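## Example pair
The file below holds two records. Each record gives the amino-acid sequence first, followed by its structure token line.
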Amino acid sequence: MNRLLITLLLVLTSPSALSLLSQVNQITIQKLAETPTWKQLLGYTQDGSSEIKEPTFFLSPEGHHDPLEELKATLSAFATKPPQGTTNPQCQFPARYLWLKRHIDTTALGVVEADCIAYRQFSLNGKAESISLLFATGYLGNPASYYGHLLIKINAPTTSFHTTLQDTSINIGARVPPNEAMPSYIVKGLVGGYRAAYSTQAFAFNARQYGEDENRDIWEYSLDLTPDVQELLIAHIWELQNSEYDYYFANRNCAYRIAALLQIITDKPLASTSRPWYSPQTLIQRINEATLHGEKIVDGVIYHPSRQSRFYFLHSQLSTIQKRDMANAVYENLNTEHSNWQDQPAIVDTLIDYYQTVHDSDSSHSKSNRQHYQRAVAARFALPEETETDLEITNRQAPHGGRRVSYVNVGIAHPAEGSDTVQLTLRPVYYDALDAEQGHVTHSTLSMAEVSVRSNRHRSYIQRINLVSIENIHTGASGLPGDKNRAWLLEVGAAQQEINCDSCLGGNLRAGYGISSGFNQNRVALHAMGIAGFLGDSFSEENAYTAVRAGISTKPSNHFSALLHIEQRLSPSGDHELLMRSDMRWRLTKNIDARVHARKHEKAEFGLSLGWYW
């Protein structure tokens, strides 16, 4: 910090700096300071101040909220030779230097261009082939990754000495202390208790973490940028590596920060400061529609399937006999005496991905799984080269083609007893078991801050509030050992305790765990789970319950889906309650659907509704 202050004093008071500022037309400086690009380089928002919290990012004490003073300080710094042992401001802020050089003849003013070795290495000496935006699909093992994650990748020319795994990826995330407890992590993430920062590493690490360890597909959106725009974006990425921001899980997250970073390459805004939520899929949809000078930015989409997706695809391509032979090989620990699996390339390739997928599913078998994997790899090398298995997965829909993430639904509920009610449901994000699409977990639910209100002839009231509603139905598509077919749920919120009751709102807390299984290429899913819950207006034993639930969900096409749940509850007093739920959904257009529901909890109810995604 002392070094920085000394440097600033020297810069701002040197004769050469003052001489430079006197030579530059003040009107030109003022106009440049008010341009959107200059403010975007400084991290300014619509409220007139920067979101960057790191003081060293600004060269003027007023730079956090005064773009003109920061521009003057930047010009002064660029015109002054820095003291020995300090970083040249041009090397610290190459995007500012590039942009100003394109608007002011700095060489005529005596500004000497610095040789920034570290930046040259980062920018590949200006020879980067392209830049990509990466979307890793949602991961229910970490709250911060429920909605997916975004990264930037700088692509070097591919040669025999360089592969895409060696490309540089740029990540942004919250700086979380080691061993942070999950409740603290969730609360701090929601209320801004962390700082977020950018980091860089080889793409190989991200491919391993997302595609191998967490079984998340990665979608790569290649950006078609002119050399000047691409150079400015790479320079801006370099500048932001030492910046910090307040982190909020809902709306100042990785998606928002990446959107703000990419703002300098689009005609229209990508990030929204007014919305209380911002999801990665929202940015993916916006960037796919974005233009620069009237030309589309995205020129191609590449699908990087996770290890699990590759395994499921290969397994689905096996014939019934091949699946039987593979299962026998797995259960017999790849014994070659009773099976000819090692002579069938399709089975060998599927076994390789299978053992990689389940390598850590059971620690007691991790060593044997590694040994079996090595045997499968050895068997693959023993096969002729021309027996390569086709791995072109074509049945995946890119996330930008899906519906929008927010949802509003209006309908009528008709109870078997009582008057009809009008219901309005608002779900800010994200999906339920009926409308899960690409990038979502099929047959599952992930929703936060969902509110349903009803109105009858007498009054309006809250029907349900879901602060958090997560239901993960993992179907274990292969049925082989270690391919976890687990189901679990978590609900936190409030709900009416009886059907058609308008004055019995109580706290709602449910957690469940069980098993699940998929059929017909995962178009049908069955599950059964045990549940412990609480529903009531007071924390008393009589409001607690345990339950057993069985369910089936199906999605035979992109235009229709349905589910049925049957739940048997048992209260501490020994009372039994039977609950039934049935829902059907029709996709009318990409962003409009119609739904029918039926409920049974002592009383019955039927309903019809129309929904819109926005």
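Second record, same layout:
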Amino acid sequence: MAKSGFSGKNILINLIVTIVAGFIYFYVELPPINLHSAAFYSFFLFLSVVYCITAVITSGIYRQAENGKTFWKLLKGSCIVPLIVIGAVFVIYVVGGLLSSVVIRSGAYAKLITVETGDFTQDIEEISFDQIPMLDRDSAEKLGDRKLGELADMVSQFEVADNYTQINNQLIVNHRFNARWTLNVTGHYTYGSGYYNQYKNGQTLSEYGIAPIPTDDPNEPITESNLIRRKSMDNHFGGVVASANYTRGRVQLALGGAGNVYDGGHWGNVMSVVDAPGFPRHEYYRNASTKYDANVFAKINWEAARGLNLYADLQYRFIRHNITGTNDNFNSTTSALQELDIHRTYHFFNPKAGVNYTFARNHKVYVSFAVAQKEPTRSNFTDTKNGEYPTSERLYDWEFGYLFHNDRFEAGVNFYYMSYKDQLVATGELSDTGQELSRNIPDSYRRGIELSASLNIARWFSLGANATLSQNRIENYTEYVSEYDADWNYLGEKELYLGTSTLSYSPSVIAGVLLDFHVKGFSALLHTQYVGKQYFTNGRNDALSLDDYCVTNLNLGYELAASKIGSVRFGVQINNLFNTEYCNNGYGYSSIVGGVREDSAFYFPQAMFNVLANVTVRF
């Protein structure tokens, strides 16, 4: 005889899943609690279906699918209550619909309308057809497009459509020559192509390389209009990554390298000019970019004595970056689109070395030093001023730490000091094309302490915590603020020397606590994170900052074992458990108008209490 699995535990699980699903459905759809609403009955139908599906899984009756008679018998036993509910709801809906229909309640509906005697010719005055405003279809569409661009919430842009395709290819080869040597080689190629359209209003046509468009009035050509533009791209990225690994006794050695090539094109077209129907498609910029990136490295790890490990990592990196053509940024100084002719070559040597020592079995100390170098990005080259291109950045990183661990407790502390040479940061200056630019700052640093600890209080409960306390500073910093007169005529940029300032988006305190509860198939993770105050700019301006915030998330899950399909896990992610109002990002800038400084800050508020549900089936 087949085992039905109709236990109290299964019924409880079915009810919990149904209640959670119903809560989510109600939270999202808000069905009216009204016997006259079809959405109310759909809600009950949804709950019944969820219960039946859950019952089929928890009871294991799907295993009897081959025996039709037994399967339907067990299915009826598992779902008898929701089936009765579905039947009752259906009967109530049908009977209620009939009783409230206009056929049966025509008299009641007739009394809802008060009939009065009137004269149509007096109530509705006749007008002449020549007084009715007429507009042809083309003019109506043109007017509609123009007004769309004037809407306040679409002043900057309105995305009409986008289209992008990316194809990724990989070839991976792994080979073991003998007990000491192995080889890993990966070849890759990615192709990407696509575009996106934007509706832009009030555009100056000369900034798109478009001459004034003649009209019926030769004295009033079109020089400004709303328009639709399309920005397109076509990219190729490919390369090879390889490493050979050698192990003998207490020595592990890795030799390898990589070579990658990027070849991409960017171009833009004005698809249509609203005030000039029939204006042909016009290409206004096109540029090409190639980047060659290659490196070779050698790593060695040597256990010099019991518990004492020495390691070193040496890397040489070569970069060649070429950007040519016309950019999409308009240069008001030259009254033309920005011309690009950038060719840069970089040679980087990045060494790293360290020592770690394990003693008394549970204790470990370590120290390391590393040098890392980074080339400027594409935007660092395109958003420049007076042809002044940035140089590469260099980082010197010293770290020292201690770790302790045993079967129940782990703790660690890490001290770090990161000294930057020529770090690229925003200074408030604007490029020749009006974009925010980044400058190489001679001296800046980050230093701090990282703390972590975890405790297994019981087999089913653990507690973890971490914190980072840091200072993030720029030395000898000068801020630039755009200055205007009282009529908003641009006067230039004012220099404000601030000395030592704080790096933007760098909170001095970050901390978190994690509670992990798990017993049998049930798990609950409670994670609380605190992030300290951050500044939008490097000027350490309180008016341009993010307040500190603390947010808590809860992750609940229950996993059921199923012999045929492996397991089924039902999960609920509850974000912002305590409904905290906070922003985790934003931006801002300053201006001086008529001698008075004005700070403009913009924030990205995060969602209040919200719930996500998921079901994971493992086969």
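Notes on the second record: The chain is about 15% helix and 55% strand. The radius of gyration is 34 Å.
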